[in-house]
Amino acid sequence: MSVSVEKIEKNVVALEVTVEAEKFVNAVNQAAKTMAKKVNVPGFRKGKAPRRMVELHVGKEALYDEALDHLIGPAYAEAVAESGIDPVDRPNVDLVQIEEGKDLIFKAKVMVKPEVELGEYKGLNIEQSAASISEEEVAEALKSKQEQHARLTTLEEGNVQNDDTVTLDFEGFTDGVPFVGGKAEDYELVIGSGTFIPGFEEGLIGVEIGQPVDVNVTFPAEYHSAELAGKEAVFKTLIKKIQRKELSALDDEFAKDVSEFETLDELKTDLRNKLMKSSEARVKDEHLKAIIAKVVDNASVEIPEVMVTERIKVMLDDLSRNLTQQGMTLEQYYQYTNSTPETMKEQIRPQANESVKMDLVLETIAKVEGIEITEDELDEEIKKVGERHGQDAALLKQSLIARGELSFYKQGLVSDKTVTYLVEQNT
Q1: Torsions phi, psi of 111, nearest 5?
Q2: Can you state the angle between helices 135-148 and 264-298, rounded to 10 degrees?
Q3: CB of 6 within 8 A of CB of 13?
Q4: In the predicted model, what is the mean pLDDT of residues 43-70?
Q5: Are 366 and 415 contacting, i.e. CB atoms less than 8 angstroms apart?
Q6: Using CA atoms, how far apart are residues 243 and 161, in angstroms rounded to an integer?
Q7: Can you say how many angstroms the Cα of residue 48 is from the centroid of all Cα atoms in its chain?
Q8: Of 122, 287, 329, 347, whose CB neighbour count within 10 A is largest?
Q9: Quick one: DSSP state of residue 301?
Q10: Is 273-425 a CATH 3.40.718.10 domain?
C-alpha cells in the first residue's frame, strides 16, 4: 500500500491511498464467500455457491460494496499512521479507481488538528501570592465546628427564630386554587437555609407553635415550573414543632468532646494549620491557572468547529454523569434551570473553545520541548492509581488497553508533565 498527502485548505488534507490489486481481489473473493452465506442461489446450498454465481445473483456492485466495507477502514487507518496526520473528524472518501486486476485507489479528505503558533511561554515571571489566613477565619472555623456539634432542644412553647429547625404542615395556593407539589405534612425545615422560595422562611419568623399563618410569596420569574414562574402565592402553614440549637461553651471540655486534643488552644492551632494548608493549596492552584492562562492567551490557533462541538458533547456527558450520581437527569436539570439543550450548548461553548485551545497549546509545547512519558513512568502512575483504588496495576493497565483508553491516559500524563514544566519556567 502507498499513500500521498495533499494539503487542500487550512486544517484539511486529502490522502490518496493505493491498495495493491491482489489485496482488492482477495477482498472481493472474501466478500463473495460472505454473501453466499446470506443469499439463496438457486441450485446451491447456502455458502456453497461459487463466486461467479453469487456475482450473477447479487451483481458486481454489491460484491464491491461488501469488499470495500472491510478494506477501506483498515487501509485508511494504516494511511493515517503512515502519513503522520492527526484527524479530528471522520473522512469523506471518494473512489478514484476500482477495477479488478488494477490497484484500488481512493481519496480520503479529512479535517486535521490545527497548527498552533506559540507565543511566549517561558520567563513570564508570574509571581505566586503568599498564603495567609486571619484570626477571623480561625474563629469562623471554630464556630462552624461548634454548630456541627450543637444539640437540638425541642421547645415546649415559643416562636420561630432564625436557625431554628421547625416541623410544619403547609399548602400553597395561587388565585385561591391549590397547586401540584405545594402541599406537605410534618415537613422539617431549617429557617435561614434558603431551601424554600424567597420570603417563605422569613414569613415564619416570630410565629408561635400551633399558630396557623398565611405566608405570602412571589415565585421567581426564572422558577423551574413555568406554571408558577412569577406568580403570587399564599402558603397556609401550621408550625407543629420548634427545635433550637444549644451550643456548647468553647472551652477545653468542648475540645476534648469534638477532637483528639486536650485543650481549646490545641484545637485552634490544628484548625489554623489546616486553614493554612488550604490557603497554600489555593494560591498554588491560582498561580498554576494564571501561568496556563497567560501561555494559552499568548498562542494563536484557528480551532475547527468540529473540535469545539465534540468538546461540548464531552462536557454535557460529564454533567449528565454527575447529575445521575445526585439522582437527577439532564432533562430534569434543563427544566430546573429553565434552559434547553441548545441554550446549554451555547452557554458552555466559550469554555469548550478555551479547553480545546489549552489542550492544543500544551500538546504543541510538549512536542517542541520533547516532553514525554516513559513506560516506567506510565507504569508507576498506574500503580499509584491502583493502590488508591485497591486494584491490581497490571489488570488496571490491561483494562485501559482493552477499552482503548491507554493513549488518552498517557496523553493526560504528558499534559500534567507539561504544566509542571511551565510552572518551573515561569516562576
Answers
A1: -80, 135
A2: 120
A3: yes
A4: 77
A5: yes
A6: 10
A7: 52
A8: 287
A9: -
A10: no
- Whether the CB-CB separation of 111 and 96 falls below 8 Å is answered with no
Tens digit of pLDDT for each residue in 238-273? Answer: 999 999 999 999 999 999 999 999 999 999 999 999
CATH class for the domain made up of 151-246 = alpha beta
Q: What is the pLDDT of residue 425?
A: 92
Residues forming beta bridges with residue 417, ordered by sequence position: none
Greatest CA separation found in the chain?
99
Residue ranges covered by each domain of the chain: 2-111, 151-246, 273-425
pLDDT tens, position by position, 173-196: 999 999 988 999 999 999 999 888
What CA–CA distance (Å, rounded) separates 157 from 206?
12
- Taking 3-state DSSP, the helix, strand and coil percentages for the chain, each rounded to the nearest 5, stand at 50, 20, 30
Q: What percent of the chain has pLDDT above 70?
A: 98
**285 vs 84, 127, 131, 226, 271, CA distance in Å?**
36, 12, 11, 41, 21
Helix (H/G/I), strand (E/B), else coil: 108: strand
- All three cell numbers of 65: 460494496
C-alpha–C-alpha distance, residues 306 and 88, integer Å: 7
Contacts for 381 with CB less than 8 Å, ≥ 6 apart: 373, 413
- In a 3-state reduction of DSSP, which class is residue 338? coil
All three cell numbers of 174, joined, read 395561587
Cα 128 from Cα 286, distance rounded (Å): 8
98 contact partners, CB below 8 Å, separation of at least 6: 24, 64, 68, 104, 105
pLDDT of residue 54: 67
* Tens of pLDDT, residues 328-357: 888 888 877 778 899 999 999 999 999 999
Tell me if the domain spanning 2-111 has CATH number 1.10.3720.10. Answer: no
What is the amino acid identity at position 11? Answer: N
Residue 308 pLDDT: 96
Average pLDDT on 398-416 reads: 91
